[in-house]
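Morning F.,

Quick status update on the modeling queue. The single chain you submitted on Monday has been processed. Sequence for confirmation:
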Amino acid sequence: MSKIDGITLEVMKNSFYTIAEEMGVTLIKTALSTNIKDRVDCSTAIYTKEGELVAQAEHVPLHLGLMPSVVKEILKMYPEDKLSPGDAILINDPYISGSHLPDIFMISPIFYKSQLVALASNIAHHVDVGGMAPGSMSVKATEIFHEGLRLPAIRVRKNGKLDEEVIRLLEKNVRTGEEVLGDIYAQLAANTVAEKRIIDLIEKYSIEHVWESMHELIDYSDRRMRSAIKEIKNGVYTFEDYLEGDGITEDNILIKTKIEIMDDSISVDFHGSDKQSRGPVNSTHGVTSACVFYALKSLLDPDVPPNAGTYKCIDLIAPKGTIVNPNFPAPVSNANANTSQRITDTIFGALADLLPERSMAACSGTMTGFSIGGFDHINRKYLSYIETYGGGQGALSDMDGMDGVHTNMTNTLNTPVEVIEQTFPFQVNNYCYVDGSAGAGKHRGGVGLQREIKLLTDGFTMTLMADRAINSPWGLFGGLGGKTSSCTLQKENGEVIHFSSKVTREIEKNDTVTLRTAGGGGYGKPEEREAESVLQDIILGFISTEQAKKDYKVVINKDFTVNEEETVHLRNA
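Structure tokens below.
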């Protein structure tokens, strides 16, 4: 029986989560690249000295879900007797860290009077780590070595002193050395904040109290998740969905999920999924586990404190050599943007009939990773613009999907137009919603985003890592699918080139790229939507009067009022 009462545990829980959030604020505020300081493509967390997750900031679900496995692997390589105060360890190897190469982890031991008491960890998406294309996420990569600099666990700081040799190695193997180092220093600063705050807690209470609070919080989350599972029906539930090619071919790639609920535990089995792909959409075991953890927590108990205890009741079966657990040296750079979202879709789809009131129709289904990079001959330096674009959220049982947002495995922001134009030789001609992209339903899906970028100089390469350009995000219980995504390039002479969802190619001065993200699926039969809500969507420009009549059976007069008589007639026909 724990010696910690409920009120004290709540106080300690909030203390731990506040530390994780302050780490995030520090990382964002001190970072150099727009990808972190503006888009917030980073995550932070604290762990027990044994490597068990205690608390995390509300950042990127993908990062947060795979970070625990990274920390455990670091402790295998650097057990307690090999760690010293002031150490900081870098790693980005996907076959250890689970993510793709641009995601660099920083793990730091926290000591109090020469005793290891906890670990601080963060992850930041760097704008370049080398490889065959700027941004280090080329869709043409066929092995991990094409994707950039691969860092095993390596100490960048030893006994509090920065290792200048490691710093030089990093700086000289990436295109944007200044930005990468600036973000590395920000990661160091974030972990330093965690160290100070953990020591403050220890000095306020005691080491024993802090440790006991950490472990009791983990046990509490375990009990709560198991209780949530017990409330739903035992059984086996399946679903399958597809990725639209791997960047090398456009063949559909199957992801098949079987979920078995057994009293207070859950098994998620991916047998039957396609073998690993030649192109870079393979999802490492870490990425796959992050998707499973996120989706199940969202459906079962969204408010349970996320920590090591939250996921003890989940068993993941991901066969080796498949799209959800590839063998080395398969490329993996695009799994974060696309495969992670499709894995999540299959879990939501599998449990939709079991938990209809908690379920969500398919979202835009991709992070829509987009990058433009190259050598800026005017300022004589390399530039790398990286962004993931939001899309339409899937509708829920009691509300419409949100418009133009990041969903599921991503939780970043879109870079402001002003920041893009001040930082890069680009002109943003258009940034708006995609009208007509929402899936119709009693509750409609969210609408997608459109951004149009014109290049003002030569010598750059673009990479698009998207999906749902062919297969529409699906609706639920009679709801229609959202409109698919698209990407076009208009040349200065007016020629328009239509791209598939995954492309890496050179672009020239005055080329204009227009990117549209998919809308979310609808929930429930469209003809059950209130006519006034349909009218409001027309006023907002989200749908046309023709779409209102076709999908919703609602007739709108020329003075923008609902024609009640014709609407009733259509809906009763």
